[in-house]
Amino acid sequence: MKYFIYILQSEKDGTYYIGHTSDLEARLRRHNQGRSAYTRNKAPWKLLYKEVLNSKAEAMNREREIKGKKGRDYIDYLVRASRA
Known about the structure:
Layout: E1 3-10, E2 16-21, H1 24-32, E3 45-53, H2 56-67, H3 72-83
Antiparallel strand pairs: 1-2, 1-3
């Protein structure tokens, strides 16, 4: 089963959200419907970046790695690189 790492940006205040899921479209829909407590107050969200991984464990590790970079610079780098 494929898993995704994704980075969302709030269209309300520009903040980022990083997560992982096996169904990216459904997960984005839940974020924008206010069904995720952490992201509820910052909707709507737009998808800026995604990576496809081969397992949930890989996705969780990659999410932890991205979040561990501390600061927006690495996230901005990933987003810019994905648009190139």
